[in-house]
Structures are given as structure tokens and as C-alpha cells.
Specification:
Elements lengths: L1 H11 L2 H51 L3 H25 L10 H20 L1 H18 L8 H45 L1
Helix pairs in contact: 2-3, 2-6, 3-5, 4-6, 5-6
Length: 196
């Protein structure tokens, strides 16, 4: 009964009201989708920042404790590496749009810039996260190579590092393709709809 009445109301409404309804539906869908993405991104940032702080503190201790010069140098490089991660993550927070923008189109434009920055950060992580890990880990472990009993362990640790980096690269690629690109397309679609 209620469905029939809603259908009659829908059919009797003019096309301008239908367009407004479609636009508001798109806006609600996008807000829900962006809300999930922002929660996921905040969670990712929190984990990365906590990991970086723990890494800085851990490698700071290793600088003083490690018996090998190569390990000390690698520990200092690891601290610089973790500081760089913190700088990258904090840099992207600066462009995050607020819900209290002048108008909705401006909010969507800033959201698109924010999504593009997230996409760029994930796509380029191979250069500023993954590739620097290999020489740092190699330098860190090379000092322990002089201990024959530790050689198998060193090889296993390095192989695990390689596997984790490959997994991180593939995961970031998947996130860009499945999470960020569709939302950028939705934002573009909604901007186009609102301008018409």
C-alpha cells in the first residue's frame, strides 16, 4: 500500500524534483563511502605513526647497544627513515578537507585533492618506503654475518623483509585500484552533476 503511494508520488513529481532527489542520493552515497575511507585512512595513519615512533625508539637504543659499526649506521638510517614516514603522513593531514567548507562543490574539490594526495602517497611508497628498507636491512644485518651461527637467521630475516615489502607494494596497489580510484570517480561524477 505504502509502496503504491510512493510510486504515485514519484510519477506525479516533476523532473526537476527527481533530479534533486538523484543528486541528494548521490551526495549521501558519496558521504557514506568517504566516511568509510576516512576512517580506514585514520586507522592506517595511527598504525603507521605508532610503528614509526616505536621504530625510532628501538633503533635509538640499538645505536648505543649494537657492537658493530655497520649496525649502528643502519640504525641511524632507520631513524631517519621513520622520521621521513612521519613527515609524509603529517604532510597529507594538512590538506584534509573539513565538512564546514563554503559550499558543497568546494568541499568536493578539496576532497578530490585529498584523495589524489592519498593515491600519490600509496603509489610512490615503493620509492620512499620499500626501496630504502633493503639497503638499511642489509647494512643492519651485515655486521652479524661474522657470527657463523647467525647466518641462516640473517638470510631468513632478509627474505621475510623482501616478502613483506612485496606484500606491502601489492596491497597499496590494490588499495589505490579498489578504494581510492572509485571514490575519485564518484567525486568527479557528483561535481559534474552539481554543476548541471
Amino acid at each position: 500500500m505504502i509502496e503504491d503511494e510512493l510510486i504515485k508520488i514519484w510519477q506525479s513529481s516533476n523532473s526537476q524534483e527527481r533530479i534533486k532527489f538523484d543528486k541528494s542520493k548521490l551526495m549521501l552515497e558519496l558521504q557514506s563511502s568517504l566516511g568509510r575511507l576516512h576512517r580506514w585512512w585514520n586507522y592506517l595513519e595511527l598504525i603507521e605513526m605508532i610503528s614509526a615512533i616505536i621504530g625510532i625508539l628501538s633503533f635509538g637504543c640499538i645505536v648505543y647497544v649494537a657492537p658493530f659499526v655497520a649496525t649502528k649506521i643502519a640504525s641511524v638510517l632507520a631513524i631517519v627513515f621513520f622520521i621521513n614516514i612521519l613527515i609524509q603522513l603529517l604532510g597529507i593531514k594538512k590538506i584534509k578537507p573539513s565538512d564546514l567548507e563554503e559550499n558543497y562543490i568546494e568541499y568536493l574539490k578539496k576532497t578530490r585533492l585529498y584523495l589524489e594526495a592519498q593515491k600519490r602517497l600509496l603509489k610512490t611508497s615503493v620509492y620512499w618506503v620499500i626501496l630504502p628498507v633493503f639497503p638499511i636491512m642489509l647494512l643492519f644485518l651485515i655486521g652479524f654475518w661474522e657470527i657463523p651461527e647467525k647466518r641462516y637467521l640473517i638470510v631468513i630475516i632478509y627474505l621475510i623483509t623482501i616478502a613483506m615489502c612485496i606484500y606491502g607494494y601489492l596491497l597499496n596497489k590494490k588499495r589505490v585500484k579498489k578504494e581510492i580510484n572509485p571514490r575519485i570517480d564518484k567525486v568527479d561524477e557528483l561535481i559534474k552533476e552539481l554543476r548541471e
